[in-house]
Specification:
Elements (H helix, E strand, L loop, with lengths): L1 H4 L6 E2 H8 L3 H9 L7 E2 L5 E3 L1 H15 L4 H7 L6 H39 L4 H12 L13 H10 L2 H23 L7 H18 L6 H8 L6 H25 L6
Antiparallel strand pairs: 1-3, 2-3
Helix pairs in contact: 2-3, 6-7, 9-10, 9-12, 10-12
Amino acid sequence: MGKYRAIPPGYMTVGEVAKKMDVTVRTLQHYDKEGLLSPSATSGGGRRLYTDKDIIKLHQILTLKHLGFSLDDIRNRLIPLNNPADVVQILSEQAAAIREKIADLIESLSEIEALKTEVIEMQSVDFKKYADIIINLEMKNDFYFLIKYFDSETLDRIRSRFDKESSIIFLQKFLHIQDEAIRLQDAGVSAGSPEGLQLAKAYWDLILEFTGGDAAMLPTLMRIGENDEGNQERRQKHAKAKAFIEPALGAYFLDAGIHPFQ
């Protein structure tokens, strides 16, 4: 019984800490082994002894673990808790980490709900399309919903031509042309003006880049373009840009002697 009497006041055994914090002795032993939470002292009989300060640190570890952090992440986030400033710092870091995880979870939830809507409307199981939709959601491409209207052959050809990086660049070009078309229309610029023809050429070059010069894809693109089911603001923006781009393309084709469907 001597080893039990050797425990000084203010210290707790590993079993007492485990019971108090509702964890297993094995968990505390693992944290000790990983360098996360070592006992403050050892009794004469070799028993691990913990203090209230260790309990606070254990609270910190369990909180971060509950939030989904790995043991390596937790190890890097632990700091000495010697004064109020230390406690405030770690609480601020935990709060920031929680906000970041909440933002990530909200974004993931939004993507899941969007994909669920697409799956319901597709009424078929097509994991290639699912993957394409997920990638475009991650890219913040508001036109992700159009993917379900492409046939498998067209999608395979698009996949062979674009990776994630080139897709982002292409989307940025498209949105820039759309914004420029709206700007020209608001400024009262004629679709057949030099500026209108220049924009139409840039738009046509973009179409050729997308299709690889295959005119057979144009009817498909035209049909898909009519299926913009996005929010009202984007539909209005798309319609406004289209009202300028279509006559500008007509003038450009006439001026350049281009017959796109031949």
